[in-house]
Amino acid sequence: MDRSADRTGHVARLVGGLEQAHDEAIEVGNEVREPYRADGFAVRIEAAAGHLLALEALDRAGLTLMSVHPQADQSPEDALVWVPYEKVADFSRRIQEFTQNTATGTPRQAALVANMETVHRALFGHLWQESDPLPAMEERRWWELWFDPKIVESDPVATLRELAAERQWPVAEVALAVGERLVAHIQASGDELQTLLGTNACPVEIRRPTFAQELHSVDRSFQHALVGDLAGRIEAAPPDAPAVCVLDTGVDQEHPLLKTSLHGRAHSALPLQTPADRYGHGTEMAGIALYGDLAGPLERQDAVVLAHGLESVKILTGMATDPTHPRAYAETTANAVATAEVEALSAGPPHARVFCMAVTDRSRDGRNGVDGTPTLWSATLDALAAGTDVVAHADRIELIGAPDADASRLIVVSAGNIRGLEPRQIRTPAGRLDHVPMCDLSRIEEPAQAYNVLTVGAFTELTGVPEDPSFAGFRPLAASGQLSPFSRTSVALTGTPVVKPDIVMEGGNLLVDPGETLLTSHDVVRVTTTGKDFFRQVSSANATSSATAQAARLAALAHAAYPGLSPEAVRGLLVHEARWTPEMTGTDLYTNTGRPRLAKKDLMKQVIRRYGWGVPREQRVLSSAANAVTLIVQSQLVPFRRHQSGSVRLAELHLHELPWPLEQLRELGAATVQLRVTLSYFVEPNPGRLGMRGKYTYASHRLRFAIRAPGESVDAFERRITAQAEAESDAPAHARAFEGDRNWLVGTQGRNQGSLHSDIWTGSAADLADCGVLAVHPSGGWWKSNNRTDRVGRPVRYALLVSLETEEIETDLYTPIATKLDVPILGAPEARGAIGTRSPVQSEIDW
């Protein structure tokens, strides 16, 4: 920003604000007795309208960035910064140097000072990180306090506990350590907590806590004889088979359809709670996670051979939260994951595990879902998925250490539900009922925004109407193949890096009465499952809970079918094999010439943010047809390496030479073919709200994929990829389209969000025959920007899935590819699995 006209006046305002903040902090600190008195204070620095602060320049000035509020339509960016008393004079000097020129004639300290508009002492309300207004300061309530241990020498949570004991403020028994942040929960009024700003228990962020809420379900009843008959036809999987671990309200361990698959693996992460399910939701999820829709097995007479088993860890009681000692979802979830893994070590041989959590924070309904930014809960899931160790102490749970790829976890979570839908909410100006706009306005619920999880929304194909005469004239609200009326989306989260759900599964429907004044549910439009009550052993479930349990089941089946696949690869496989129904895209996705009917931005908003990549059918996930072949590559690369100059640079590029059946593709000539590519990996989160750019970006690293263009040499391809990686900014808003996007359905600007990227290349078979090389490369992250010595040089794991598909043309692509890879050619296409792993050709990029 050009401040040349009045640099002296600008500096005077900033220095004056700093001096006033210093004096006010001294006054506040004098009211705090030793040893709690802080050795510094927090200031709020506001940027000039339309400009961004140089956040890393603040660090170089000896200050510590606490949090950042990004610029919005009505407000500029502002940063909260911790200023040690001993650094005040130096910070003031740096600001005053802005009036001087360098040898080249430019202002000194321009990066630090030019975009600053005001400096003043930070108040309690400035630390508030939620988009909803700060609660009344006089109201006594629970708060979530985030601490940065680096700004003080003592343990801030220990200090908080001592202060709370003195002042009789209730504090949650367990704190949580995620990355470089400590998080504690305390009950007090805002007025009372203001004193913390003058202590060495000064929080860097204040948020609204997420505590366990109640769940609701509806039971149904079936004859015991039907259940007994099915129980006699079940062949349970052995204890070392893959398992779905349901994190919910517990499970009915004696249910005849669940008992043999549990192998006694039912536990509780809640103190003084048994694994029993008093509420029912957990038992319903367990039935779907094991059987899918139970109606099929109940109605058939053949044997049911199961390929996976069950585990259950209770994280909810279904009762109101204890107001004295609340348990945060993040703490409980981390504890539940540790419980499942520790108990499994002592119970028997190791096995693959899929965590299923159909629980979301409905308390954010007043704000209509999350705003897309990370929370304590979502960051905890990201850390757990990446393989971070969980260490429990008496007063805190720590997620510590570098992620371990061999300990990564597949966590499947729900997108969240719309509850209590009424006709008046979805009536269009033309008078008809349409639930989709309401779903689009209802943003996903916490923790569905987590990068590393598989987030599941709901669609429906249940459109039957009960034969009961009382339902005469009723109709289904959603058409077959359309979005379920219960499913939330991320359509309203444009401008954020969150694109969820990743996939959709069956979530049930609602029925509309003839007068269109009533919406009602019924077992006919719900998924059949197990019930917890002895006299109601068959129940039904719907919404994203049902969909999430089905997705977890499918992931466990994939682990059983392909034992060598990592959690990253299984997550990628479900997305890769998902397909949109015609109702999801509104029409055929492509024109007769093979071009997409929807523009990239419309596809992202109207389809992907609503349905993810569609529905992964079991047959597609577990088999490969002759004209649709999937190649799975599992590998690892080093994203960052220290250069001999001492700087940290992007390190490795992987080039995968794909085994195209060139002769067959050239025979197809101008015929349209599709190349579907999915890249799945896990990132280490940086959960503090620090601006999400540069060294403060959320993801530890980012990976990208690209394909060589027809006629492009490998050297030219590498140069193009290098330029793209260097051009990409850390800020999500700075994503840009690159050359070569024309053939891609989504393009780089839309697909490069989160840690799961998928896209479809469409073109002629002849052009594709001339490509043949796919690159995977890094493009930045906080590991690089923070110059982390314990992360630089560390390899990261990824899974790359590639499918080659043609129209219904009598051309066998499977056999020549299988022959080239030395994969056995089996008899029937449906018996063919995913083609095996290939080692990449590695190149060093000299960035």
Calculate the terminal CA-CA distance, rounded to whole Å: 30 Å
Q: Main sheet, how many strands, which sense, barrel? A: 8 strands, mixed
Q: What overall geometry do the principal axes of the alpha carbons give?
A: globular
| Helicity range | 25-40%
Our Rg estimate from Cα atoms comes to 28 Å
The assigned structural class equals: alpha+beta
Give the percentage of residues in beta strands.
Answer: 15-25%
Ranges with pLDDT <50 over ≥5 residues? 213-222, 823-847
Number of strands: 37
**What number is the mean pLDDT?**
85
Q: Given the structure, what is the number of helices?
A: 24
Defining traits:
847 residues; alpha+beta; 8-stranded mixed sheet; 6-stranded mixed sheet; 24 helices; 37 strands; disordered C terminus
Could you explain the architecture of this structure?
Residues 213-222 and 823-847 have low confidence and may be disordered. Strands 10, 11, 13, 14, 17, 18, 20 and 21 form an 8-stranded mixed beta sheet that branches. The chain has a 6-stranded mixed beta sheet with strand order 8-5-7-6-16-15, with helices on both faces. A 4-stranded antiparallel beta sheet has the order 2-3-1-4. It contains 24 helices and 37 strands. Helices cover 25% and strands 23% of the residues. The chain has 847 residues and is an alpha+beta fold. Helix 1 runs antiparallel to helix 3 (88-96) and helix 11 (329-347) packs parallel to helix 12. The chain starts with 6 loop residues before the first helix and ends with a strand. The longest helix has 23 residues, at 7-29. Helix 13 links the parallel strand 17 (410-414) and strand 18 (454-460).
